[in-house]
User: What shape does this take?
Amino acid sequence: MNTIPATAADPWRMNADLHSHSSWSDGVLAPAELVRRAHAAGVELFALTDHDETGGVAEAAAEAARLDMSFVPGVEISVTWAGKTLHVVGLDIDTRHPGLVAGLASIRAGRDERAREMAERLERLGVSGAYEGAIAQVRNPSLVSRTHFARHLVSSGVCSHMDEVFSRFLGEGAPAYVPHQWARLTDALGWIRDSGGVAVLAHPGRYRLDGMMRDTLIDEFRAGGGQAIEVVTGSHTRDQYRQYARVALDAGLYGSRGSDFHGPGESRVDLGDLPHLPDGVEPVWPHLSVLSAPVGA
Ligand code: AMP
Ligand code: MN
Ligand code: MN
Ligand code: MN
Assistant: This one.
């Protein structure tokens, strides 16, 4: 059974990392390896949040229990909203909830076809064998992602780093980018809520929305039951920590903190290696069942 860390008395100071990826989606490490790395890095509360997939949660939970580290079952759901791709993290979800299970399966279903289409576009741009190369990087065949293509294009020498793959080929608007219809925001929020979870808007600073669209998104997110936004994330700059602290305060949302770690040497921020939430932002994690359960229960 997980114990409550000493810093739970001052949750604001706790090393909570509530956003990470394993090889069940586009992370490099197996769930147990990821959990061991988080524990070694001093993380006290850890969530596995694979894209559209919860297959790694049981292994991660077992390893966290063995290490006596508090663990939160999570997922990062791909959403299409106003023609843009957004990510919504669900924390404290019941991974067996039928609505969530069916919803996630429905989003995963289109990935293989999209991958073949990306490979065709790459072929036309003079890069052959990208589908096979990407698949060779994948451990969970239902979750081939742009990250796997990017790893392949780097390891085969077509690009020198992952950023270059996205700017030259696979980023939104680049020539091999294939638009895809992910979940509707209201559906994703519904699956999270119905499975007992807390919805967190992931890395809001990445969406390139103007002020009005951002306000509309936050309104719809709250109306659908969303409760938190990532303020301190590996995807934000220091200025964005301050900017989204303000958004959280103005909108009455809790703040979350997570590295969005994908792999050693690949992610800009390692597990747990982030500043605390800015003053005034109320952390989401005291509201998760692992911390709010009575001591000894
Ligand atoms: P997909 O879900 O297949 O569209 O893939 C999206 C994933 O690509 C994200 O979850 C990130 O892990 C990765 N990604 C997006 N943009 C970049 C970038 N500029 N550099 C590295 N990885 C990226
Ligand atoms: Mn990813
Ligand atoms: Mn994301
Ligand atoms: Mn992520």
Q: What stands out?
A: The first strand starts at residue 16 and ends at 17.
